[in-house]
């Protein structure tokens, strides 16, 4: 009987020990999860801009592991610091996406999607020559980050991989950017103009290099090289040396000219080229023509620059961005580019003109929330001149 009591007592003690260990393990897991979430909120609140797929879990041996991946070294460091502050003992299995792998868009307008499949939502686009940070390289889809920070998936056939050294060489090369407002063509020879002589189409903002390293012009046609090595000829009047384009000062009329040149162009969700465009895409493309890189989405653009109250719209200047949306929640759903006298241009169904002035015949009743001024705010968060962007220069 005494022996039986001893066995029962040992079992109870062992059970309590196991239970205590489990509770301790669960407590550590919860602490780790909270620390990770705190780090995410502080350094990676916008999933459109930062991959933050870090999680804590117990492996088969009961060991606490913190693993997953992130695209931001600051976020990774913040996780380590938060875990240390919480006193969590863990095995580190976090993967940081590389900063020295690159791709470039090889077609006039490449569609980027929220997931690596054609049926997924198109969230943005990149035009030919755009430098892309290559995060993950799959067989059919590559996960990339655009110069404005947007992260999405692009078909592998739409891009070409570049080494860090190749990108350094590209930044130092003689480059030209398409500044023609309308779609143009590159031809196989300087004299070819036939329907079967086309190498590719090009749109405003596409970047090409001088074939052979030095600009060569024949009969008004510039010999160019595309990111994937193809060569062709374009009208010299349709392109501008990239350093000249990048040296521009703020020019509201340049921005508005490009926007108005797209009047009638169909609305396309995720579109950011002159072929078809959404509302924030119109703002991006128009500003990029002036050498300025804006954030991708209207809700992001609305948080940049100098804010102007909706009631003060008469103080707006040409080039200011107007934001519309839900008057009750303040959620931004639409953006337009202000011109003058209450008039603006925007993409809604198509690129068109309307007015923010309630007395105007072209006034729309969509709630006007506020405006922001980009001019004078270059190099503040969310607004950067291409000449100061390290991916371009």
Write up this protein.
24% of the residues lie in helices and 34% in strands. With 393 residues, it is an alpha+beta fold. The protein folds into four domains: 2-96, 2-Layer Sandwich (Histidine-containing Protein, Chain: A), CATH 3.30.1340; 102-169, Roll (SH3 type barrels); 174-243, SH3 type barrels, CATH 2.30.30; 252-388, endopeptidase fold (from Nostoc punctiforme) (Alpha-Beta Complex). Strands 11, 14, 15, 16, 17 and 18 form a six-stranded antiparallel β-sheet that branches. A hairpin with a 6-residue loop joins β23 (321-325) and β24 (332-338). α5 crosses α6. The longest helix has 42 residues, at 2-43.
Structure summarized in a few sentences:
This protein has about 400 residues and is α+β, with helices and mostly antiparallel strands.
